[in-house]
Structures are given as structure tokens and as C-alpha cells.
Design goal:
- The structure is a homodimer of 398-residue chains.
- Chain A has 13 helices and 15 strands.
- In chain A, strand 4 and strand 5 form a beta hairpin.
- The model of chain A has no long low-confidence stretch (mean pLDDT 96).
Amino acid sequence: MRRNSYIANLKAGYLFPEIAKRRREFAASHPEAKIISLGVGNTTEPVLPHTNAGLVEGARKLGTAEGYSGYQDEGLEQLREKISSVFYRGKFNIDEIFISDGAKCDIGRLQILFGAGTRIAVQDPSYPVYVDGSVLAGAAGGFEGAGYKGITYLPCTAENNFFPNLELIPQNSLIYFCSPNNPTGAVSDRIQLTSLVNAAISKSCIIIFDAAYSEFIRDPLLPKTIFEIDKADTCAIEVNSFSKPAGFTGVRLGWSVVPKTLKYESGESVNTDWNRIAGTIFNGASNIAQAGGLAALDVEGLKEIRELTNFYLGNAKLIRDALIKLGINCIGGDNSPYIWAHFSGRDSWEIFSQILEKCHVVTTPGAGFGPAGQGYIRFSAFGHRADVEEACRRLEKL
Amino acid sequence: MRRNSYIANLKAGYLFPEIAKRRREFAASHPEAKIISLGVGNTTEPVLPHTNAGLVEGARKLGTAEGYSGYQDEGLEQLREKISSVFYRGKFNIDEIFISDGAKCDIGRLQILFGAGTRIAVQDPSYPVYVDGSVLAGAAGGFEGAGYKGITYLPCTAENNFFPNLELIPQNSLIYFCSPNNPTGAVSDRIQLTSLVNAAISKSCIIIFDAAYSEFIRDPLLPKTIFEIDKADTCAIEVNSFSKPAGFTGVRLGWSVVPKTLKYESGESVNTDWNRIAGTIFNGASNIAQAGGLAALDVEGLKEIRELTNFYLGNAKLIRDALIKLGINCIGGDNSPYIWAHFSGRDSWEIFSQILEKCHVVTTPGAGFGPAGQGYIRFSAFGHRADVEEACRRLEKL
């Protein structure tokens, strides 16, 4: 059997396993080191009581005749209604909201809507799954120089205040856009997102908008969903996740909004196709996870989301303050759990190694997120408070 | 944006939503009818106490500082070890076992290894996801006559005792093979599976072996995994699931075995690619589900698997006996939870409608599983005992 040539186009390993490997190697050669991770964006705190009770009850009732339930292909109706009312003011019907086992998995599957040869435009730097998933789907060629052939990188750097030049977007592209951004922590404002939507419409593009960090937004003027922007429902799909707000990354629960008003150029409904794809090669998120999600969205649960995201934003402030004190330029960390630190003219992997060796702190090298991430380091605010405080003290060694 | 042309190749809806729709319509026009479903293969009984305690504890500990865990990308090591020892006598290393959110989802993703244009051979009839997933992946063309262009259907009918003529398999194909079979309930014996492995090797094929129903096998001479066959580890991937044996379809947990000895024709490792794909567009099964899976595989849990599969096999016997009493030819139901009933010369959907109208029992029309399923009906043994008994009484009206 022949190997799918698209796989061969993917270079090296996926970013985070590569970082885990380097961490393991360092730990093996430095058994005395107490390594602290500010690397992967993985929540660390216990699930808060009310949300946890939802998970426990979801598991418990499967053991009872009255509470048992099997496949939940399309997701609990009640959960989809709740998502629409909590996050979208009831704008969407339940058949426009698809429960997933997480944003990453849906990002991988959504490419099937458009197929091989699709033109891709991504913020640069960006969450690696947009690009790697596109390569696997045949929407990009091999790696050449600093990026993959066929992908339009939209640099987001200090020079443009981390919002891309939309004129670079080609006609008929699939645009991946993430705000609050992973990794830069930058949040696009209403004017910026309006210009993005207008660009997408005028260039017949579709946006896959990743709003996984929206619950970290504290500035009331910043949009928490692309659907706050007029006409976004004719040009955008939104993916989102319970992982970060409810703090249960390993439980696997997210959702995608595919509006019925979204059409291909032929006029056919994208929603209908997505429903068919999800029904054919996916089988729904865990019913236990959905019970937890439901708890996370009631009055008590929403308080817990606020409490937990406040906690991680508190970590973010500590890291940001420590970096600023060291004279390092950085953004993010105010409306997002990521701090993006600039080490101008330096190689990201080299800084990564230096921080690991000098401070025993794991970070993420900016270059792992795309060519424009070179010279940057991402600090993640997901960690225990004592560890974050200790990491901040150690950073002074830099 | 253009629609992926592969989607347009898919005809109508996925089988089971279509059945659900017809059921809803019937219920709406016959509000008095007490409909019983022997249709979808969806478990109905509460999760048994020990396995359920594993799920509850998996959820509970996420609420504690000591027990919290985040992403489990590759799956719990302990669970992968347990799967290797319980199902494969320890034959595989943990890096050959990949935890999934269910067999259906992995079947959809595995196609990425080979890509568009792959030749596909399937048992006919077969679980719809093999064919529909292949169409979505561009490994088949449009629907013509009774099947999809580019797919080699391997008829499994009463005439060949439900084992296909392997000479029909083209060189270099991806072979989907399911035993115990869904929908026919037939189980391939050691000689048959040996001939399948030999055919795959001599024709440079790879088998995706679906063993999701292996725990229903009672005949000790029948193989429960393709890896009981010599050299299968050079030509096969096995997908499997906790859904049916542990009886928690909605919890979402399965696994795939991709042996390191499995190579593409170029000599490259399939295992390495699968690891990369899983890491890139998947994020692991729910950690709560994995805690339940771990409980299901210890001594107490394995007793529960036996107890639960015995229960459903008891249902299967009732259905089979009722059909035989009516003079209807059928197979399956002894080492599998499906009974495949032959209504020679009749149209499947017509029999489906007749059973629904006369008996208020939902079944699955054989033609929904492929052209050779025409004239057959699948009865699923997943149901409450009282419902199955009542359904059997009503079937006498046929």
C-alpha cells in the first residue's frame, strides 16, 4: 500500500510532543532539577465543585436504569440550547451547534468540507493544528524555506500590533483566525474583526474562527465571538471548547457553530454537509463530558468559569510583570492566558533551551507556531500558583 | 469557497439518522404505537457496578488536587498495557496501541494514512462507515447502480456462507473486514482468517480489521482478534471498542492496534504516521472514559463484560428463536449480537416498513449495509429483556 503523500509533506513532529521530548531528555540528564512547565496550554487546577458534580452525576447515572443513555451523536439538545443562549444570545438554532470532543478534533475534521487543494490563509504565528491539519488534508504542499507551499502566512508581529494585513489574503481562501490569539495573546477588537469579515465576504472566503480563549476576555469592549460582527454568519464557522474555561482539558468537550446562512459558492449549505460528515465519521462527545458541560453553563457553573479564568489570569499577570521587570517586551496575558515575549534577533529554540537550562522552566518556542514566531517565546499561564511564582523568581536568572 | 467534490459523491443520509427519521415520522402519525427498537446497535442496560464505579471515580478525582489530570493525548499507559495483556497476550508494546474515542472515529481517521485514490475492498454487506468514510476520503467515486465506483464489494451471502470470495480483492487495496460481522453476525474461523491474511500479503493489501464485537464470541475455537493469525502483524490494523462489551456506547472509548511491523510498500512505518496523525488532529479520549475502561479490564470488570454480553446474547437467542419459529432463515446471534434474517426476493426497506407498521418494531434494512444486503433485515439484540420479549411476540403478526 502506498503512503498518503500528504503525510510526507509534514515536517518533523507535532510541536508539543517535541517539547515534551526535550523536557524528558533534560530531566534525564538533570535528575536534580525541579522542572516547572509554562509550556503546553494544559489546565492544572482541580475542576471546581459544581462543574465536577455535573461530571460525577453524569457518570453515576449511567449505572442506573432511569439515567442510562447510549450514543449522543448530535449532542444533548439541552446543551446545544444552553450554548446558544449563553454564548450567542440565542442567535442560533440547535441544528447550527455541533457538540465535539474538542476544538482540535473539529479543526482537523472541518477541512473535509473543502478538501485537497483548498487555499489556506493563517495568522502567523498560529496554533499548529491549522497548518499541520491543512497539510494532512492536502491543502498545502511541502515545507520550503520558512513555511509550507500553498499556505498564505499573515504575519502578526509587533510592527502591525499583532493584527495581520488583510490585503495578503487570496481570493477563495479558508482563513484560520484565532482571538484571543494563541500564541500571541492578542485580542482583535470590533473594528478589526469587522474588517476581517468584510475582507472574507469581498474575497469569497470562509473563516474558521477559533474562540477557545474567549472566556478570558475581561475588556467589555472586545468581541467574544465572531458572530458579534454583522454578516459573520454568512462567512464564518466558529470552533470553541470547554477545555480552558471549565478547566477540564482531558474531559474532551467543545462545539462548533456552522450557521445555516453559510453557503458554498454554488449556494449549497455548508451546515448540511457538516451534519453529514459529523454523522458519518464522528459519534458524539462523551455523555459524561456533556453532563459536565451542562453544569458549567448554569448560574453556579458560570461563576466557576469566571473564578477559574480569573485564577489563570492572575498567573498571567505575575508572568507578565516578571518579564516586564526584566526589560523583556511582551504582550498578552491581560485578556488571554498566554504571554508572548520578544527576544529580538534571537532564535526561539535557543531561548527555549536557555530558559530550560538556566531556570528549569519549560516554555514554547515561538518559531514552533510559524515563521513570524521566530524570536518569540510563549509563556502559558496554566500552572499552580506556587509553581508560577517560583518560575517567576527563577526567570530573574536570565 | 468550493465544496469538497467528495461530499457530493455521498448519497442521501447516513443510514441510522435515516432510520431515526422514519421512526419519528411513524410515531408522529401513530401516537398510540409503543415502538420497540431492534434497530441501531446501541446498548440499553445500565453500566454494571464495578465499571460504573471506575467512571464515577474517574470523574470525582478530577475535582481534587491529587487526582486532577489534563490532556491524555496518547492514552493512559496503564490502559494501553492492560489492553495488550487482556486482548493480545501482551504481544504489543504500548506504542502500538492507540486509545481512541471509539472505533467509528478511528475508522474515519485511518483513511488519512493512505489518502484519496486508495483502492477499497469491503465485505458486502458491511458497517456503512467503511464505505461512506472512503467516499469522504476520495477513495471512491459516485454512486452507480448498486454501489460506489472504485469500491470492490465482496458479497457475503447465504450462498458463500457469509465469507467472501477473496479472489475478488484487487492488488494493493485497503480491505475492511469485520468479524463477528456487523450486520450479518457471521464469525470467520481460523482457516478463513488465515486465508484472508495470506490473500492480503500476496496482494500487498492492508486489512482494517474491526473486532468491535469480539467479546460476544462464545465458541472457543473462533479467533477474537486478527492477530491470532500468523503474520497478521505485517498486514493488518485492528480497531476495537469498549462500547459494546462494557456497555457504554455514549461514553466513547475504543482503541486501534497499529503494529510496528506494518509497513507501506516503500518500507516506511505505518505506526509512525498514525502516531503523527493522532497527535495532530486528535487529542485523546476522555480521561473519565479511560478510568472506566481501566476498571472494565480488571478481574471484576471482565466478569461484568461477560455478564453483560451474556445478557445481550440471551436477547439474541430469543429473537433468533422467534424468527426460526416463523420459518424465516437467519444467521448470527450465537457469537454476535446481530441476527441477519433473509426475506428472499423482497425489498429490505419494504420489509422494514412492514415490520414497523405491523409490529411497531424498528429494525435495520439490509440494503442499507450494501447491495448484497438486499432482501435481508438486521435485528439488533441491544434492548431491555421485556422489550425484546414483547417484540418477539409481535413478530408473530408477520
